[in-house]
Amino acid sequence: MTDRGGASHPLVELTLARFREFLREPEAVFWVFAFPVIMTCALGIAFRSRGAEPVIVGVVQRDGAAALTATLEAAGGFSVRPIAPAEIERALRDGRAPVVVVPGAPPVYRFDEARAESQVARLAVDRALQRAAGRQDAFVAEERPIDTIGSRYIDWLVPGLLGMNIMGTGLWGVGFSIVQARTKKLLKRLVATPMSRAAYLASHVLSRLLFLAMETVVIVGFAWAVFGVGVRGGVAALAVLALAGALTFGGLGLLVASRARTIEAVSGLMNLVMMPMWVLSGVFFASSNFPDVMQPFIQALPLTALNDALRGVMNEGLSLAALRGELAILLAWGLGTFALALRLFRWQ
Amino acid sequence: MNHVPTDSPALACRGLVKRYPDVVAVAGLDLEVRRGECFGLLGPNGAGKTTTIEILEGLLDQDEGDVEVLGRRWRTDRDELRRRLGVQLQETQLADKLTVEETLRLFRSFFTDGPTVTELLDLVELGAKRASWVGKLSGGQKQRLAVACALAGRPELLFLDEPTTGLDPQSRRQLWDVLGRFRAAGGTILLTTHYMDEAHALCDRVGIMDGGTLIALGTPRELVASIGAAHVVEFAVEGAPPADEVLHSLPGVRDVRHRDGHVALATSELHATVPALLDRLRQDGAALSLLGTHSATLEDVFVSLTGRHLRDD
């Protein structure tokens, strides 16, 4: 038994020190725990499933407007908004109505071809008006709408928010505390002891793991309790992914903080690293929206790998074996950045 | 750890040079610190004290010169030296939101030999503050904690960079007591300071630094004796004081200095200088506005060597 005068192994003491410092910083605790819950809540409410919603139609106020309005209301499923003749363009632009109908024989449809919502509204209005004018459908298809858990937007969104949070807290948590220790000359003091430098860096990543368990439970637990978002692939697989994500972004945080001398410098670097991933890695909308030529780059980003893997486990019930590609990407990033950080690190 | 002959110096450096783009911080420094002694590097801000001590601590690389610490070299024996040295840096801020005890546990965990955390707390008299956050400590308590961290590995050699700067007299005395206990246990200390009374109170030998080199070296007593004047007479008059040649001709006077309208006479014969000075001023009809005497100090040594004061206040 090594004599440490009542203290534990340095890696344990360093990790505990990080853990305590974090818990004693109320702002940090808010950003890690409360912020993602508020975000999930707000987005969950904004994008909740509301069943079939009425299609909003603008009807220009001129001869025939009253008859047209009556026809649409009789068809059902429409919410009609009167639009002044001079206001057509503006109503389309500011989203008051996705489609505006100018009464006449035949009527005129004004809409935005580039917007899916606008297209859909045009089709619905056209079908209602054609039927009212006497058109007969060739057949009536059987319709089976879905609203099963696992396929709603909120189900898709929560793993993305979890991934984003793992990235954000990993980078901020590690990067900030390291740069702070550097500006306070604490790093310099520590390297004047026999402390292992690798142990110091590893303690930052390890302390992230402790928080990670809590963050994940809070976000997934909240989404489950309030929105019924499930974890189809099992909690164990989710835990492994969260762990891999924390290691990855902890390593990236170390790398970002390895040379920065001021909090401002490191903040800028963090945003530079995170911004592309917020946009490209499928947090709020699918990364498949980007052109094919960008896909190899997007798929190699750690947050894309993490989000895809989290969705695989939570929504599709995939096993870890099926996600080994994503796991490999995460581990490569984690180990690569850690090794690079250890080489580049500025201790004083 | 006793495979090094104990008669080798605790620390030796020869021809130490450190250049920065705009300044030569250390310009050819030779220094030797014996085992068991307390050695003080005394000098004004910018004299190169901190650069010197950081090179000796292995935190900076010198551009030229040779450093040997406890018979070892930084290049080849870094890990061993880190275990055998204690270091307190001038500007380190320990984590504010850890408690005193947590901080000491952290530092103690890096060493495989040394006092227990409780013994360290007692050593620096912070037992009552063990559960307080570091951020809530007074300046003196923080410095004692920094020294306790430096003592965590039971070092043979302790480096202290301006350990009492900014502390009130009582806090300084408390820290001196801690250092006294370390020395009583056989420890060696190298400290920097710009307080002459601190060097007087703590150090067996003092090296006076200015402009990156050592300009004087010896025990405090030897250094004071070296200016050939045991006392200093300070006076001021309304109007112009007598010319320097006149003052030099007074019995016992070895040196004449002016500062802020005061005149300081270094003298070897206080009992002869004072009456002669008063006679002279009476003949000139000059009205005394200030008269005082004190025993010569390291400050007077520095003034007589450089014509400047240690601290610009």
Blueprint (SSEs and pairs):
The complex is a heterodimer of chains A (about 350) and B (about 325).
Chain A: H1 10-23, H2 26-46, E1 55-60, H3 65-75, E2 78-83, H4 88-93, E3 99-102, E4 108-111, H5 116-132, H6 153-183, H7 186-191, H8 197-227, H9 235-257, H10 263-280, H11 295-300, H12 302-314, H13 324-344
Helix pairs in contact in A: 1-8, 2-6, 2-8, 3-5, 6-8, 6-9, 6-10, 6-12, 8-9, 9-12, 9-13, 12-13
Chain B: E1 11-20, E2 23-33, E3 38-42, H1 49-56, E4 64-69, H2 74-84, E5 85-88, H3 100-109, H4 117-123, H5 139-150, E6 157-161, H6 169-184, E7 188-193, H7 196-202, E8 205-210, E9 213-218, H8 220-226, E10 231-238, H9 244-248, E11 253-259, E12 262-267, H10 270-284, E13 287-295, H11 298-306
Parallel strand pairs in B: 3-7, 3-8, 5-6, 6-7
Antiparallel strand pairs in B: 1-2, 1-4, 8-9, 10-12, 10-13, 11-12
Q: What are its keywords?
A:
A: 348 residues; D-Maltodextrin-Binding Protein, domain 2; 2 domains; four-stranded mixed beta sheet; 13 helices; elongated; B: alpha/beta; six-stranded mixed beta sheet; four-stranded antiparallel beta sheet
Describe this structure in words.
The complex is a heterodimer of chains A (348) and B (313). Chain A has 348 residues and is mostly helical. Chain A folds into two domains: 10-47 and 152-344, no CATH class; 55-132, 3-Layer(aba) Sandwich (D-Maltodextrin-Binding Protein, domain 2). Helices cover 63% and strands 6% of the residues of chain A. Chain A has 13 helices and four strands. In chain A, strands 2-1-3-4 form a four-stranded mixed beta sheet. Chain A starts with 9 loop residues before the first helix and ends with a helix. Chain B has 313 residues and is α/β, with parallel strands linked by helices. Chain B is elongated, with a radius of gyration of 23 Å. The interface between A and B is medium-sized, with 30 and 37 residues.
